[in-house]
Amino acid sequence: MLLIYNPVMPVQHPTADFCIEIDFQRGSDSPSRVFRAMSALIDTFQSIDRQLVQSVDVKIEPVLILEDIEAGSLRAWLRNTLQAIDDEALKKMDWKPAVGRYLVRAKYILIDFTRSNTTISDRKQLIELGKQLFSAAQETEARLIPAYAPVPQIEIAKSLKLLKEATSALSRNDSAKYITPADEVSFNLQFDFSPEAIEELLTRETISNEQAMILKVKKPDYLGDSMWDFRFENRTIQAKILDSNWVNRFQNREVEVRPGDAIKAKINVSVRYG
How would you class 23 by CB atoms within 10 Å of its CB: exposed for 0-12, middle for 13-18, buried for 19 or more? Predict the structure, then answer.
C-alpha cells in the first residue's frame, strides 16, 4: 500500500518576514479584544526587536512594516526593515538580511519558551534563553569583529512580560500563533509570572537599613489595605505604613493627614543587587 504524507507547511507570503495569527471564537462578545491583542503584539515585537538588535550593533534601528492583513483568522503579515548609522564595525557586505533573520528567529525562541513553560521559576531558565539568543546573534556574522553582546537577563524577562501582557486581552477560547517561513509556534495564553518573582530570581544580594526620612504625602491610604504614595527627591515612592496604632488613629480622624502634607517616619530601605 502506498502512503502519501503531506506535511503541513507554514503559510507563506511573498514579501513578509513573519505573520501574527489570532484565531478567535466566532459569535463571542467583546470583539475589540482581538484587535487590541493584535495591536499590542505588533507594538511588543517592535519593542523586543529594539532590544534584541543591540546584540549585533547598538546603531541599528529596526522598523516593522505592515505588508498585508487577512480576515478569517485575523492575520497581520509584517516585514523587518533595518536602518543604521554608518558603522565601521559592520561588514561591508549586505548585513541586513542576516540581522532580519536573527530578529525573526529570536522572537520565535522567546515565544517557544512560553509555549513550553507556564511561568519562570528558576534563573537558569533565563540563562538558557540568553544563550540561545546569543547564539542566534552570532550566526548573523554581521560584524567584522565577532564581539556580539548578550541580551541582559532583565531585558529577557521584560520581553516575556510584554508578550504576556499583549495576549492578556484574548479569551481562553482564542489562540494566537507566530508564523515564519521556516516554522510556526503558538503563544501560551496561560503563561504568567509576577515582576516581583523575577526581581527575586535576579537578586544575588539584598542590603537593608532603617533610616528616618521626611516624606511628602501624595496619596494617603484611607482604607488601610493598600499603599501610600509619597514624594521624595522628585520621585514617587509607594510604601505601606506598618504602625497599626497610627493607621487606626488616622482612619478614625484622630490624626489628619492630607495630600501635600509631610510626615516624618522610620523607613526600611532595601537595595537589591543582581
Answer: middle
Q: Which domain holds residue 156?
A: 18-200
Residue 13 lies in a domain: no
Last residue of a domain, one of 200, 225, 258: 200
- Quote the DSSP letter at residue 25: -
As beta bridge partners, residue 185 has 178
Specify if 32 maps to a domain. Answer: yes
Band (273; pLDDT cuts 50, 70, 90): low
Considering the domain architecture, whether residues 255 and 175 belong to the same structural domain is answered as no
* Edge-to-edge strand ranges of the sheet holding 228-232: 235-239, 228-232, 205-219, 262-273
What single DSSP character describes residue 143? B
The string of pLDDT tens digits covering residues 222-244 is 876 678 888 888 888 888 888 88
Q: Give the residue from 176, 200, 224 where a domain finishes.
A: 200
pTM: 0.71
Per-residue pLDDT reduced to its tens digit, 82-131: 887 555 656 666 778 888 999 999 999 999 999 989 998 888 899 999 99
Task: For 28-56, give one letter per residue: b (16+ CB within 10 A) or e.
Answer: eeeeebbeebbebbbebbeebbebbbbbb
Q: Give the C-alpha separation, 189 to 173, whole Å.
A: 10
Half-sphere exposure of 232 (CA within 13 A, CB side): 14
Cell of 167: 495576549
Is residue 4 assigned to a domain?
A: no
Cell of 159: 520581553
**Residue range 23-61, pLDDT digits in tens:** 998 888 888 999 999 999 999 999 999 999 999 888 889
